[in-house]
Amino acid sequence: MGRLGLRGAAGLLAVLLAVSLAGCTDSGGEGEGGLTIGLLLPSRAVPRWEKSDKPLIEKRVKELCGDCSVVYANAENDAASQRQQMTSMITRGVSALILDVVDPKALRSSVRAAQREGIPVVAYDRLAEGPISGFVSFDGAQVGMLQGRALMKGMGARADGGGVVMMNGDPSSPNAAWYEGGARAALRDEVRILKSYDTLGWRTENAHDHMSAAISDLGPSRIDGVLAANDSIAAGVISALKSARVSPLPPVTGQDADLDAVQRIVKGEQYMTVYKPFRLETEAAAAMAVALARGNDIDALVTTRVDSPTTEDVPAVLLTPTAVTRETIGRTLVRNGVYTLDQICTPKLRPACDRAGLTR
C-alpha cells in the first residue's frame, strides 16, 4: 500500500488541534464564505456510516469552518448511484469532496471530472482511484492481522492446524483485499483455510447464506473458527451457526465495533471486533477537505504517502486499529466514550455484563 511512515496518534492529535485553531482564526479570507464540502458515503448496510462517520464529519467541518456547509449523499452500495451523486455535486460546484468509494474503478472517471473542475477529492476509508488529493483511513493490513491473531487465540489448541472459514468483504472494495491480506499473513502456516467467500455488499444476509453453505459442505465439527471481515458479516455468520444448532459456537471475528456486535461479544457469541476510533478518522478527513477547499497545502496534516493503482505519492493519514474482546471492552470502548455501560448492558444482558466485569 505504498510507503508507510506513521508518526503516531499523539502527533496527529497535535496537528489536528493546530488546524482547528487555525480554522477558527482564519475566517473571512477571500472566497472562504460559503464553501461547500460534498460527502459521499457508500451504504447503509454497515451501521457506522450514518451513525458515526456522517455526523462526526459534519460536526468537524463546522468547527473548522463556520461558513462551510456539507452536502451529503449515500450510494446504497450502488456504483452507478454514486457516480450520479458525484456528478450532481460537481455540477453544483462544491469546494471539495470527501469520497468513500463504492467501486474505485467505476468512480475513476468521476474523480477525473472533479479534477477538471478544480475540485479536490479526499478518499475516505477506501482508497479511490484517479487523481485524488488525499487519503484518510486505518491501516487495513493491521486490521486483518489483528483479526487473524485474535482468531487463533480464540481457537486455543485448535489453532495448530485447525480449520477456518474466511468470510471476506465485498471484492469491489479495495479494503476487502487489504484486510484479507493481513489476515492471511497472520494465519499462514498455522491453520487450514477450508473455505473462503467474498461477501457482496458486506451484507448480513449474504454472509448467512455463505456460512450455511460452508456448514453443509464441511460439517460443523470441522469448523474451528471463522474469520469474518466485519461485524455485519459476523452477524450473518453467527445467525447461520445458531440456525444449524452449532454448539459451542466457534470463535468469530469482526470489525467496526457496532453496538450489536459488542453485545454479541458480551454474550459470548462473537469473539472479537476491531475498534477504529472514527473520531480521529473523521477529524483528519474534515481537516484535509477544509484545507483543500480553501486552497491550502495539506503537508502538515499527513503522516505518510501511499500509491493507488493510478496515482503515486498520495498524501495520507493511516490510523492504528485496536482489537477488542470481552475482557477489553471496558478499557477501550467504554473508557473512550464510544458506548456507555447502559447502552451495552441492557437489562437482559446485565448478568453477562457482570460476568465480563462490565460493572458500574
Description:
The chain is of the alpha/beta class and 360 residues long. It has helices spanning 9-25, 48-64, 79-92, 108-116, 140-155, 174-187, 204-218, 231-243, 259-267, 278-293, 329-334, 341-344, 350-355, and strands spanning 36-41, 69-74, 96-99, 121-124, 134-138, 163-168, 192-198, 225-228, 272-275, 304-306, 314-319, 322-325. The strands form three sheets. It has a seven-stranded mixed β-sheet, with helices on both faces. Strands 7-6-8 form a three-stranded parallel β-sheet, with helices on both faces. The chain has a two-stranded antiparallel sheet with strand order 9-12. The longest helix is centred in the first third of the chain and has 17 residues, at 9-25. The radius of gyration is 21 Å and the shape is globular.
Largest sheet: 7 strands, mixed
Shape: globular
Biggest β-sheet: strands ordered side by side in the sheet: 2-1-3-4-5-11-10
Count of extended strands? 12
Q: How large is the share of residues in beta strands?
A: 15-25%
Secondary-structure element series: HEHEHEHEEHEHEHEHHEHEEEHHH
Low-pLDDT segments, ≥5 res: 1-32
How big is the Rg? 21 Å
| Helical residues, percent | 40-55%
Structural class: alpha/beta
How far the N terminus sits from the C terminus, by CA atoms, comes to 43 Å
Number of helices, where a helix is a run of at least 4 consecutive DSSP H or I residues: 13
